[in-house]
């Protein structure tokens, strides 16, 4: 039965941990997928930026050359006169008898692309659907792009596979007729603003893809490590939750066992006719469970009775205070022995169990018939005048005189005696403490009576 109960408690913890692990995995997986997807696009994005920059530079250079109608240079074997330029002023002779030939913008761009091809990423091709120079003939993709420009497209791009298994990014932009372009192309019936042709370029994607692959590998390792750390944290939390739940179940079970024992014992004691014998028996039973506080209740009872007599209370009332004192901690019978005898600092849960003992003591004793308010004195012996006590937070005269006297005796005996979590602090420290809280937490008259008793030489029995 116990194992079944524990299983019922642990199953939700396990289910929550599994669900959290799944959510963590899905979240990290989604983030990794997104980052990998974005990284895979990086080579193409960089290639497009590079291609646009190259072509923008070429178009700007062409516009500059067009503005001046071309440039005259000395013809050579490498740079002969343009045979496709049909202008009377193509070739001139200077006053120094130096022969020059006109290099028009299109021919100039072709020479640049031809001479510097592959250097610093420079590669390009000027082409048109209406050719003057057959060497500028477009390939299949360039032809489709030029037709698209005629229909209004501002640029065209594609990715192609190379014979060696690599990839290249191809990009092309249109060239438009300017006023000074008509000087060379008027015979082709162009008008200003018409598409003259286009400039294309390509970027090898292999280097960018290698960088992206390295980045993706780093991402996988990083996300994998973060994922494992997260799962480890979830596992540690799961194990700790199980331990805490098991500890809580154990304490609850111990409380139930202690409560049953206490009720059985009280039932047996009901047959006793003598109240004092019953209370003494209860006190003895508790002290056998808690060796560290053996004799604590009897010492508190002796001092409390003496304080009551010092205050000139009737002897019968003082005897009632004595009887209440010898069972004032009876409620601790419901606290697990390992908590009562714990040598270190109590946890919040353990201290909360300790704080239940006044109410438990009251519940046990209220069934016993007595001419004195013994159950009430036991219930209130941890209350304080300023309302900081427990379990009800009573203040001042709300606390009965019996409980106020027991509280003073309890503090003095507890502080001066050895406790499981600390050695005894000594009588002087105990008396200094009750003097410090006199009138704020502890009853002034009871404190004064206690201090006077010890000045007169009182000693615990």
Question: In brief, what are we looking at here?
Answer:
This protein is an alpha+beta fold and 461 residues long.
Provide structural commentary.
The protein is an alpha+beta fold. The chain contains 15 helices and seven strands. The chain has a domain at 272-455: Orthogonal Bundle (Hypothetical protein af1432), CATH 1.10.3210.10. The strands form two sheets. It has a four-stranded antiparallel beta sheet, with helices on both faces.
Q: Spell the H/E element sequence.
A: HEEEHEHEEHEHHHHHHHHHHH
Structural class computed from helices and strand pairing:
alpha+beta
Low-confidence stretches: 1-9, 268-273
- What fraction strand? 5-15%
At CATH's second level, what is the architecture of the domain at 272-455?
Orthogonal Bundle
Radius of gyration: 50 Å
Q: How much helix, percentage-wise, in residues?
A: 55-70%
Summarize the main sheet: 4 strands, antiparallel
Quote the CATH topology of the domain at 272-455: Hypothetical protein af1432
CATH domain class name of the domain at 272-455: Mainly Alpha
What overall form do the CA principal axes indicate? rod-shaped
Average pLDDT confidence is 83
- The H-level CATH homologous superfamily of the domain at 272-455, spelled out, is Hypothetical protein af1432
How far is the first residue's CA from the last residue's CA? 48 Å
Q: Numbering strands along the chain, what is their spatial order in the largest sheet? A: 4-7-6-5
